[in-house]
Design goal:
Jelly Rolls; alpha+beta; 20% strand; 6-stranded mixed beta sheet; 279 residues; Arc Repressor Mutant, subunit A
């Protein structure tokens, strides 16, 4: 049987149940442009080697490695010219783990290597999902979701075992507190939790844990609350166009700004400004 080789990264369009598995067998000419997606991605390297770009980080990968890409992480693959890779890619909708608001933030953003037992567990779950995905069965969706949850649990369990003895230091806690204190003045510069953790020289998992301890909130929600608070003040006190206010608050997409503003305030920015003007 001939393997279908691809020159470009495959489209990642999730089905209604929120779990997709792709087989990506690369040709020698394979190229991938930067991608940023709202879902969790777990990649198993069947063969080949190369470099996986995760945000600002570059990590080498080879056969048997597992790569974790949390939601919102800019990512790209460069294959080694001498060893094009074959990957199994599992995409999991973030909504499937929404019951725990910090779970997605606890996922490592890295290439996990040197752990054969863990890699075999991931490979086994992926293999099962590949078979189930093509079946026209009433249980297809629930089976794939259940296996995806087992995979995420395996990732979290492995990460916890590796870091259980790594307790945050007082210096790290102080660094987080200083960072939080600065956020009201520069929240608009924040691009991702990975960049924030890297800038402080603190592991992502430690950063996430300490941030929640200091603020009582997740990093993303805290940033969004600061942005919306600033937007409310500018809507009340200025006649700036709403597009300009959205840009000031770090939103390049006006529709995202409207959606987030209404989520936090219950009304649109225009409705909020009109109500403030009438007082």
């Amino acid at each position: 049987m001939t393997t279908n080789l691809t020159d470009r990264a495959l489209p990642e369009e999730l089905p209604p149940w929120g779990v997709l598995v792709l087989e990506s067998h690369h040709s020698a000419q394979f190229t991938m442009e930067w991608r940023t997606h709202p879902f969790i991605k777990v990649v198993y390297v069947l063969q080949g080697k190369g470099t996986f770009h995760l945000g600002e980080a570059k990590e080498y990968f080879s056969a048997g490695d597992v790569i974790i890409v949390p939601p919102g992480t800019r990512n790209r693959i460069d294959d080694d010219p001498a060893a094009a890779s074959s990957l199994y890619v599992c995409c999991v909708a973030k909504s499937l783990v929404s019951f725990d608001p910090v779970l997605a933030d606890q996922l490592p953003c890295q290439v996990l290597r040197g752990d054969g037992h863990f890699a075999n567990r991931v490979a086994s779950l992926l293999r099962r999902m590949v078979h189930v995905q093509v079946l026209e069965s009433p249980s297809r969706a629930i089976t794939m979701v259940a296996d995806a949850m087992k995979m995420i649990q395996a990732v979290l369990d492995r990460n916890q075992k590796r870091t259980k003895n790594e307790k945050p230091t007082s210096d790290e806690r102080m660094a987080i507190q200083r960072y939080v204190d600065r956020l009201p003045s520069n929240f608009f510069d924040e691009t991702s939790i990975d960049v924030a953790a890297s800038g402080l020289g603190i592991p992502r998992r430690t950063f996430t844990k300490l941030f929640v301890e200091v603020t009582g909130d997740t990093w993303l929600n805290h940033i969004r609350c600061l942005a919306i608070s600033h937007a409310k003040r500018r809507l009340r006190e200025t006649d700036l166009p709403i597009t300009s206010i959205a840009f000031e608050c770090g939103f390049n997409d006006l529709s995202t700004f409207y959606r987030q503003f209404k989520k936090h305030c219950g009304v649109t920015p225009r409705e909020y400004r009109s109500a403030a003007d009438s007082v």
